[in-house]
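Continuing the batch. This is chain 6 of the set; chains 1 through 5 are on the previous pages. Same settings as before, nothing changed between runs. Recording input and output for traceability.
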Amino acid sequence: MKATLKKISDVCKTIFGYGIMLVLFAGGLTFFGYLAALIIGGETATAMCTFIYKQFIPIVIYASTILILFGLVTMYLAGEKALTPDKKGAQTEGEK
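Output for chain 6:
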């Protein structure tokens, strides 16, 4: 059972990684959209900025939220606990 969950988790991690990479790339593209609007100016720039702000960015936000939840489920399937201290690595210099 654990081996099956590990395989499913590995596939899900790959999907999560590529998905987050695409969402970050799409978010970075907004900079170039705003830069192009700044150069073009006028009514076209207003339309571009309105499209980016009202239609494109909400899709990127929803996609990133879904992918983050997918990543958390993947961590749960793998049995990982990312935000808990490890007993072996928790010793500081004073404890040795």
